[in-house]
Amino acid sequence: MSRPQEFNTQEALSQAMQVFWRKGYEATSMADLLIATGLSKSSLYATFNSKREIFLAAFDDYRRSRAKDMLKILSEGPARVTLEKFFQMAISDAWTCNGQGCMSINQAVELATVDIEVANRVRGDFLGMEQVFSKTITRGQKEGSIKSSMTAPDLAKIFVVAFPGLQVMVRAGCEVDDIEKRLTSLLSVLD
Fold it and tell me: 107, 100, 152: which is closest to 125 by C-alpha?
């Protein structure tokens, strides 16, 4: 008879995610994960069969949480204001997290070229962002907060391309003022 699980899986995933986010997949060892979660090797392997399985579960948890946050931010207020708020929050979060940036963008750079499952997840994130941006921009054009005559899907594509660029600039240590000026230029396409 197997012993019942004596730890909170969600909490363990959250702790593992922080390590993967900070160090990246390759640089994270099982010892790092054991220290971060406080679990024994047998407990960790009983729930997750491998480092990769822990990573994918933690990455998926991160992705769900960020998608939920994005939807919430972009649905509260005039579309133009919510888009600006979303990008300011994304940049601020990247600085607050010691310049770690977005975990999806980090994995696009680290693993997507060698791991098809990660690549599919990252592409799914980009597609999901594009759909949410397009819906928000359409709403903004209808309500009048977005004046651009470009189509919502075309504007959404610009924002999807800009998002990783801004994240990488934060990770590269670019000046706050410089990134804010670039964000202002980006948002001007809505006017």
Answer: 107
